[in-house]
Amino acid sequence: MSSGNLSEFILHHIVDGHKWHILPFEWAVVNVPAPLSLHVLMLLIGAVFTFLLARTAAKRVNLLPGSPVGHMVEVLLLYIRDEVARPNIGKKDGDAWVPFLATAFFFILVLNLMGLVPVFAGATANISVTAALALIVFVVFNVAGMVKNGPIHYLKGIVPSGVPLWVLPILVPIEFISIFIRAFSLTIRLFANMTAGHIMILVITGLISVLTPMISGGLHGLLGGASDSIALALIAPFPLAFLLFILVIKVLVCFLQAFVFTFLSSLYIGGALHQEH
Amino acid sequence: MDYQSIGYLGAGIGAGLAAIGAGLGIGKATASTVEAIARQPEVKDDLRANLILGAALMEGVALLGAVISLLIVLLK
Predict the structure, then answer these.
(1) Can you give the residue range of the structural domain that contains B48?
(2) Do B60 and A195 touch (CB under 8 A)?
(3) Is there a domain that residue B2 lies in?
(4) B70 chain-A contacts, CB cut-off 8 A
(5) Do B70 and A199 touch (CB under 8 A)?
(6) pTM beyond 0.95
(7) Which residue from B minimizes the CA distance to A79?
């Protein structure tokens, strides 16, 4: 495989399209009809998975969760309530925001992890998806601040009170831009982390087919026709072992990015609700 | 040297600079956290969440640089 083919191989696996390659065979390609695209389909499937996860976890809850899934979800939910919502939004308001934060967390987590499962595609490696998620957070924290403090008071509160008058012409634009930057940075962070992870996996996989012809060319004089398969057998274990390591890191990153998105959302919501802190 | 190779050069240097920035940042944050834990082991749990969050933020900036470099190379 030349470097041109490698970049095509990488782009093919990252860019959105209308074909869903379920398995790497010709007959296992599903056409996604026009109003949908591959990543939109993944969003819908991810929503179904998130719903099923919550449904399974909430079944037969008395004092303790009734199923192993319930216990797993409970740990994450309690963490979101005690370490994310309550410290950042406040003891009184925090509990009311746990459903929103938990929904965002589990939805992003499921989408991230779907990017690692062979059959599915990673929807969070698409900047439009992450931009939509960040836009939801942007609208939510602004509207929440306006409902809690009143629209005019909220807009006034964006700029800290008590600054000298001559600073205001500089400070007002900066503070207003910083609100939009928040949504932008949420978008870019999730997108860049997921895309970089996918590209890393694809590059390491592609390394096998880039390196094999080189070794095979060297071995050709010694072994003749069998040199291709022997070179493949010599080379393939090293990228695959490294790939395993990268995949473990990627699972960690999937959880971490979902957590960071939730944590920053809660910071912004808390900042909008209690402006002078 | 034609323009395309200068572009490739820029992409490589950019990815390297992004890695330097994130490396310095994460190194400094981790060093301070370890120092603080050594002085006061009881704050370990509070510091861990902050460290992970800060590291994720710094890593995000570095990855942004890496992604831009990759886009330069892949999309020509």
Answers:
(1) 21-71
(2) no
(3) no
(4) 196, 199
(5) yes
(6) no
(7) B49
Give the count of alpha carbons within 13 A of A190, CB side only.
Answer: 37
- A192:B60 CB<8 A: yes
3-state secondary structure string across A30-58: EECCCCCCHHHHHHHHHHHHHHHHHHHHH
Looking at the domain assignment, is residue B52 inside a domain?
Answer: yes
Q: What is the pLDDT of residues A203-240, one digit of tens each?
A: 888 888 888 888 877 777 777 777 778 888 888 889 89
Q: What whole-number distance in Å separates Cα of residue A69 and Cα of residue A57?
A: 6
CATH number of the domain to which B35 belongs:
1.20.20.10
d(CA A110, CA A42): 10
Is the separation of the CB atoms in B26 and B55 below 8 Å?
A: yes
Of A249, A214, A256, A221, the closest CA to residue A235 belongs to A214
ipTM of the modeled complex: 0.70
Residue recorded with tokens 């719903």: A51
* Residue A164 distance to chain B (closest CA, Å): 32
Q: What is the pLDDT of residues A47-99, one digit of tens each?
A: 999 999 988 888 877 777 778 888 889 899 999 998 888 888 888 888 899 99
How many Cα neighbours within 13 Å face the side chain of A97?
30
B64 CB within 8 Å of a chain A CB: yes
Q: Find the distance separating the first CA and the last CA of chain A, reported in whole Å.
A: 57
Which of A5, A7, A200, A267 to mutate to probe the B interface, most B CBs <10 Å?
A7
Tell me if B35 is assigned to some domain.
Answer: yes
Which residues on B lie below 8 Å from A88 (Cβ)?
A: none
What's the CA gap between A136 and B67, in Å, rounded?
24
